[in-house]
């Protein structure tokens, strides 16, 4: 056991003293904050006053309604001014194009005579890629045209805006205690962040185990180590040491999240978002413990696999080629994250949540999206522990022989011989 503790300490200290550990610990929270804050800040930077020319050829009073709706105060911060231009579209088009190129206008709009029937408005500008501007124009035109259609249908004098306004959905999940939880967007964001976190830590530190084993094998250090410590203890020490560094890094991130959550009101005001937007950061204690369990067990499972692969290969080039297939089970829940959070109780999500190689990422997403039956959580953890035991047993056998093998990479048949003989 003393030898194992020495190896654990060596691997742990080697990781936390590295520049990559320091940079990763600092950059990841900044990266996650940027994911949420940058779209808001970028949207704010694109909100400015836009001056449009309007050619109104539509039946009265569509043009007036359209102009009134477009220049009204909007929640997204966009501000519009409208300059009416007399004449037909064909007669003034070249003049308006020249004004747009000279930046006198941001663009021009045309309400054709048949807009009520054809349902088409013409919009021309140098750049038409801003979806918020397109949405504002579309909404104003739809409101004006719908009002005219309702008037023609005999609904003169009716408050058309109130009659046709869109219904908003106040969505929230129901927790096991009957309380209201996250909404649809908050649920997806939270589940996706958890999945990304588990994927990054498992992939980065798992490959760290692989490269540590490979480095000691190619430099012949492993031969010296194995002469004084059992191969299985060497493997266990590496996995636990690297895993401890990973847990320390995650703990630092969790502390940062807690600090952000406790100051959510001030942060929300500084970046201009509702304080409720930070509600997705809150994690019940029970869920937090389950996430930790899945992360630790999942990491140990994949670290055992990476250690076995590192012992079997003989070069850095081989490491790059075999690392991707090992990480495929981590890709699958990430790719299917939208489907998993949208239907967390579906057959696909349930299977991925029980299968040991995909459950470390799938179950945290399912648990954060909806209440999952306790029997499924227990079954998932049991299968994950069983999968970890099997993988550690296989990895240990491959490690014992592979750590001292040199030359070409062993074939699958040779690996099977190792499993029988080790």
What does this structure look like?
By secondary structure, the protein is mainly α. The protein has two domains: 2-36 and 174-421, no CATH class; 51-164, D-Maltodextrin-Binding Protein, domain 2. The chain is built from 18 helices and four strands. It has helices at residues 2-16, 19-46, 62-71, 89-101, 115-118, 131-152, 160-164, 184-218, 221-228, 231-262, 264-271, 285-312, 316-335, 337-342, 347-354, 359-369, 374-402, 412-421, and strands at 49-56, 79-84, 107-111, 122-124. A four-stranded mixed sheet has the order 2-1-3-4, sandwiched between helices. Helix 8 (184-218) packs antiparallel against helix 16 (359-369). The longest helix has 35 residues, at 184-218. It is elongated, with a radius of gyration of 30 Å. The two termini are 21 Å apart.
Average predicted local confidence, pLDDT: 74
Strand line-up of the largest beta sheet: 2-1-3-4
Continuous helix count: 18
Order of helices and strands: HHEHEHEHEHHHHHHHHHHHHH
Name the structural class: mainly alpha
Classify the helix fraction into a percent range: 55-70%
Largest sheet: 4 strands, mixed
Low-confidence stretches: 178-184
Strand content: 5-15%
Oligomer state equals: single chain
Over the alpha carbons, how many angstroms does the gyration radius reach? Answer: 30 Å
Number of domains: 2
Q: What overall geometry do the principal axes of the alpha carbons give?
A: elongated
Q: How many DSSP-defined strands?
A: 4
End-to-end distance: 21 Å
Q: Brief description of this entry?
A:
By secondary structure, this protein is mainly alpha-helical. It is built from 18 helices and 4 strands. The protein has 2 domains: about 280 residues, no CATH class; about 110 residues, Periplasmic binding protein-like II (D-Maltodextrin-Binding Protein, domain 2, 3-Layer(aba) Sandwich), CATH 3.40.190.10.
């Amino acid at each position: 056991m003393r030898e194992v503790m020495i190896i654990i300490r060596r691997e742990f200290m080697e990781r936390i003293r590295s520049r990559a550990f320091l940079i990763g610990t600092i950059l990841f929270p900044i990266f996650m904050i940027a994911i949420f804050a940058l779209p808001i800040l970028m949207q704010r930077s694109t909100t400015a006053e836009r001056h449009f020319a309007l050619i109104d050829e539509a039946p009265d009073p569509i043009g007036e309604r359209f102009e009134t709706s477009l220049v009204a105060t909007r929640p997204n911060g966009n501000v519009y001014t409208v300059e009416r231009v007399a004449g037909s579209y064909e007669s003034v088009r070249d003049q308006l194009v020249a004004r747009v190129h000279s930046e006198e206008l941001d663009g021009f709009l045309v309400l054709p005579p048949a807009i009520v029937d054809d349902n088409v408005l013409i919009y021309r500008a140098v750049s038409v890629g801003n979806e918020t501007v397109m949405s504002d124009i579309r909404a104003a035109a739809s409101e004006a045209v719908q009002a005219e259609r309702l008037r023609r249908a005999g609904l003169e004098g009716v408050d058309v805006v109130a009659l046709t306004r869109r219904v908003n959905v106040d969505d929230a999940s129901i927790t096991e205690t009957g309380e209201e939880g996250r909404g649809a967007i908050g649920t997806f964001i939270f589940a996706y962040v958890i999945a990304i976190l588990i994927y990054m830590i498992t992939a980065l530190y798992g490959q760290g185990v692989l490269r540590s084993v490979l480095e000691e094998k190619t430099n012949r250090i492993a031969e010296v180590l194995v002469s004084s410590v059992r191969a299985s203890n060497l493997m266990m020490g590496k996995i636990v040491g690297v895993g401890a560094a990973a847990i320390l890094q995650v703990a630092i991130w969790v502390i940062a999240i807690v600090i952000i959550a406790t100051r959510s009101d001030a942060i929300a005001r500084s970046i201009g978002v509702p304080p409720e937007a930070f509600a997705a950061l809150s994690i019940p204690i029970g869920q937090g413990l389950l996430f930790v369990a899945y992360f630790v067990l999942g990491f140990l499972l994949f670290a055992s696999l990476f250690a076995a692969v590192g012992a079997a290969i003989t070069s850095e080039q081989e490491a790059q080629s075999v690392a991707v297939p090992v990480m495929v089970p981590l890709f699958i829940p990430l790719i299917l994250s939208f489907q998993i959070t949208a239907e967390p109780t579906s057959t696909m999500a349930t299977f991925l949540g029980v299968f040991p190689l995909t459950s470390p990422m799938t179950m945290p997403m399912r648990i954060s999206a909806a209440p999952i039956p306790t029997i499924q959580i227990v079954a998932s953890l049991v299968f994950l522990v069983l999968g970890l035991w099997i993988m550690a047993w296989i990895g240990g056998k491959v490690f014992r022989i592979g750590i001292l093998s040199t030359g070409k990479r062993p074939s699958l048949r040779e690996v099977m011989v190792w499993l029988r003989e080790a």
